Amino acid sequence: MTRLAIGVNLRRCIGCNTCALACKMQNNVPDGMLWNRVLTEGCEQFDGAEGTYPHLTRTYLPLACQHCENPACERVCPTGATYKDDKGRVEIDYDKCIGCRMCMAACPYNARTFNWNEPVRATGAAYGDARVPERGRGVMEKCTLCKERTDEGEEPLCVRCCPADARVFGDLDDPNSAVSQLRRDGRAEVLLEEKGTRPQVFYVR
Amino acid sequence: MTSLMKNPLVVGSGVLALVGAGVYAYQLMFGLGVTGMNNSTSWGLYLTCFMFFVGLSAGGLIVASSASIFGIKKYKAVALPAVILSLTCICCAGVCVLVDLGGIQRIWRMVTGLNFMSPLAWDMIVITCYLVINLLYLYFMCSKKADPAKVAVVSRFALPVAILVHSVTAWIFGLEVAREAWHTAILAPIFVASALDSGLALLVLALFGLRSRGVFQTADELITSLAGLLCTCIAVDAYFIGCEILTTAYNGTEGGMAVIDTLLFGGTAPFFWFEVICGLAVPFCLLVFAKNRRNMKVVGVASALVVAGVFCKRCWLMFTGFAVPNIVGANGITLGTTAAQAGGAADMWALMGVYAPTVPEVMLTVGIFALGVCAFTVLCQKLLRK
């Protein structure tokens, strides 16, 4: 088995949003939405801080699909459009999606985005990787773990582009992979562990 | 047919329903972006009304079938209008789900590749069964060879399916681990209880309507008896809600308090307090006295309050679930709406769940209600006047 995963070292993350934009570029994500976004934790302003002066901290949290081992979205999808593939990624078959948005209500991470309208792009043209399929109106989409790249042994573009080397990609079922080594770090944790979704994306604080 | 066309209620509601159909065509052309729904609040008025209609449909069928199962003879008198009401409401509920789908052109996937783990799949199956049972019921009561034995058999299936259809609707929400406000085992009992009180109250209102138009006469004693049943159902509903609020609030957990803050003091508080005061407390206090139950005006007011209260309950149930995301941080969630597409970064984000229905969304919803009124009036005129 293969369980592709991403580990994010939050101690290295500088909140530059390169991963968010790399994702948008690679996957042709239309205007008004992102598959991968960077949150500033515990405050209402991006680049804000948490706490009271002088005891302030600032932590960035890049957030996208967590590619859960026990995905809540997959169970509730009435047509099987959302599925767990043989490489351990959570994927969407756009031809099967009826736009009921059960998965959106089921995802604890708000990782999914819906095409409420006809997708538009400020550039007036598609800018994504040519291998990435088009999505139309009324279809759900989200991080695919750069399916088209990782199928061919490349890293996801967010990992490739991270200037701070905060992101690590690999197979959790290979104990010697860099991602498995990082996962064994005592500080590694997953988001909303209590929901029982067992995310494959994890964070080191 | 000509008599129907002279009925202002049929004509008026028919026109509104046609307007709704026009708005639906508009929505099909431009997508669900014409509604107020977005990535933070991914279900809105349509599915709120879906819950509401499924609930309203219960009362009728439960009264009709219990008349037969438990041998409550006096309820048999209203079994026919009750089943017609139930049928109309479940059809409206179905319409609500269909207009909410973003990819209705691919709905055949529900037949070819159904995932039996999905509560929406269960719902489709159970609602179809429920619809068939309603139609059979109506057929056996109205056909020339009306046969009480067949009605009795159908009613034995109708009661459990009626309870199941409301439970499954609750599970669409209650099984979602992501939404603290929905994820509770008592959600299905709450749905059944509020289905019983809102459905009964609507039946009482419908019987008043039919009586005032001279279509169908109901004895005051029967309404009094139904009002007593309604009073009991209101009490059960209130009890379940009380249990849920106490369990959510008691330990002061982070997730629980987020729900309580939204529900009691935040965005959904007006709906919650309207329901508790005007939809539960006031009608219960009115109907608990036998003297009031004999006063048809009081029964009418109480019934209308219960229906309005349960509508508000559907609103607070739905939107409390979306109000606070599990992972809060700036800038929040990308909305994906028309404004987000056009306005750039300023209109693209929401820290918390945001939602307001748009004019087309409200018009389409009004159209669905009008369709229900129109269908109910026509069916009653055709089937009750003999």
Automatic annotation (TrEMBL), chain A:
Domain 4Fe-4S ferredoxin-type: 4-33, 56-87, 88-117
Domain of life: Bacteria
Keyword tags: 4Fe-4S, Iron, Iron-sulfur, Metal-binding
Pfam family, one: Fer4_11
InterPro entries: 4Fe4S_Fe-S-bd, 4Fe4S_Fe_S_CS, ET_IronSulfur_Cluster-Binding
UniProt-recorded name of the protein: 4Fe-4S dicluster domain-containing protein
Protein's organism: Adlercreutzia faecimuris
Automatic annotation (TrEMBL), chain B:
TM stretches of this protein: 44-70, 82-108, 120-141, 153-174, 186-210, 222-241, 271-289, 362-380
Gene3D superfamilies: Formate dehydrogenase/DMSO reductase domain
Membrane topology recorded in Swiss-Prot or TrEMBL: Multi-pass membrane protein
Keyword Calcium: no
Predominant cellular place of this UniProt entry's protein: membrane
InterPro entries from the UniProt entry: Electron_transfer_protein (IPR052049), NrfD-like (IPR005614)
Official protein name in the record: Polysulfide reductase NrfD
Organism: Adlercreutzia faecimuris
Gene: nrfD
